[in-house]
Design a protein that fits this description.
The protein has about 240 residues and is of the alpha+beta class. Helices cover about 50% and strands about 10% of the residues. It is built from 7 helices and 5 strands; from the N terminus they run H-H-H-H-H-E-E-E-E-H-E-H. It has a 5-stranded mixed β-sheet, covered by helices on one side. A hairpin with a 2-residue loop joins strand 1 and strand 2. The radius of gyration is 18 Å and the shape is globular.
């Protein structure tokens, strides 16, 4: 994908989420985020947007930031923050040095990509509260599968001591033409761009389905799991710990 595609996606997904939730019941439960309602998901995403604005401006992780509207109008507050985030990121080139939480990518482009996917996943959450979810572009979804595996799983593996399998696992993941070999044990995870011959399990599906399965937004019925289903479940547990 072109770097500019992420900014375009950030703006479009933010606008769609706000328009979709406006004038609906913000107290509706979100099935993909147990225990949360739509208003809480929108508030969470708006808070993340504002945290990133402060992070980029100060070039360090913020200790405190705006976490919700004073007047209770969470949709208006969300729209304002999403627009400010887009403008703040858009005035900087993607290769500009920038502090991030990834030691592998210290550029503004990290935030372009990260915020596009963060917003898309939560757009899916909001839609799921009211009915069927809308589509996710295949190329973007495949990139998101790569991000959650290569960034989150590898760099945030086993957070809080959770998601560590009892035995070493090798799981293949295929999302359209994109493939990954995921090897993980109690200590760490490794991801390479190949489909393993010695996999305990292989997860196969169209890019959008695999993307949302990896993020815990779709169940096993959305993808095809070949081999040891327990190994695939261990991958999902490890991802839940890394992204939670």
């Amino acid at each position: 994908m072109e770097p500019s595609d992420f900014l375009t996606r950030l703006r479009a997904e933010s606008a769609h989420l706000a328009a979709f939730a406006a004038d609906r019941d913000l107290g509706a439960p979100v099935p993909t985020c147990p225990g949360m309602n739509v208003g809480e998901v929108v508030r969470h995403l708006g808070s993340v947007h504002r945290a990133v604005i402060d992070w980029v401006r100060a070039q360090r992780r913020p200790e405190d930031w705006d976490r919700g509207p004073d007047d209770g109008d969470v949709i208006r507050w969300f729209r304002a923050g999403a627009a400010e985030l887009h403008d703040e990121l858009g005035r900087r080139p993607p290769d500009e040095p920038c502090d991030t939480w990834s030691p592998e990518d210290r550029t503004v482009g990290f935030w372009w990509r990260r915020m596009a996917h963060e917003t898309t996943v939560h757009r899916v959450d909001v839609e799921a509260a009211y009915g069927p979810i809308g589509p996710v572009d295949a190329e973007f979804a495949a990139d998101g599968a790569d991000e959650v595996l290569s960034l989150y799983l590898v760099q945030r593996f086993g957070r809080g001591g959770r998601g560590r399998p009892a035995a070493a696992r090798t799981v293949g993941v295929a999302a359209g033409s994109r493939v990954w070999r995921v090897t993980f044990d109690a200590a760490s995870a490794e991801v390479t761009a190949e489909l393993p011959d010695d996999a305990d399990a292989v997860v196969i599906g169209d890019p959008a389905a695999v993307y949302l399965w990896l993020w815990g937004r779709r169940g096993d019925d959305a993808v095809r799991v070949c081999g040891d289903r327990a190994a695939a479940a261990d991958l999902r547990a490890a991802l839940a710990a890394a992204t939670g």
